[in-house]
Amino acid sequence: xxxxxxxxxxxVDSNNFQIDFGTLMRVATPVPTLLPExxxxxxxxxxxxxxxxxxxxxxxxxxxxxxxxxxxxxxxARYVREAIEKGGAKIPMxxxxxxxxxxxxxxxxxxxxxxxxxxxxxxxxxxVIQPPKGSSAGHMxxxxxxxxxxxxxxxxxIYPGAAYRKDKPEYEIFRP
Length: 176
Prior knowledge:
This is CHAP domain-containing protein. This protein is of the alpha+beta class and 176 residues long. The chain is built from 4 helices and 5 strands, in the order αααββββαβ. Strands 1-5-2-3-4 form a 5-stranded antiparallel beta sheet. It starts with 56 loop residues before the first helix and ends with a strand.
């Protein structure tokens, strides 16, 4: 006597009209999981590439030259920042309060750090100088091709004043 035909989840077997018991077996229900991130080969720390996209050294130098005073106004960070922004690099908020803290910001914008040893200034270079003893703000300045300029026109040497020349604090040079 033939057994009754009971269709399974996939229907009746088309060859012998028997139930496909292979589809009725219990299996573990798959649990959704995240695939692991593919392993990346070990990489050396990338060397920062100098170059700020869309930056105009000419526009920055023209701005700082036309706004500089004969004597310090105590606003070097503001004057140099405004020149950098006039050149086309936007310094994000919140901006550093002190000139001495602009190094990491310039690096993130794409300005390349230049080693101090046997350094020859180039037009558009920016120096970020740490403060001398008794001061907290530091100094920031841009080379216009002849002299260093910030909120005032400085002498050709890197240090802007007597306290800096006396203590010779550390400084970093950034090039667009």
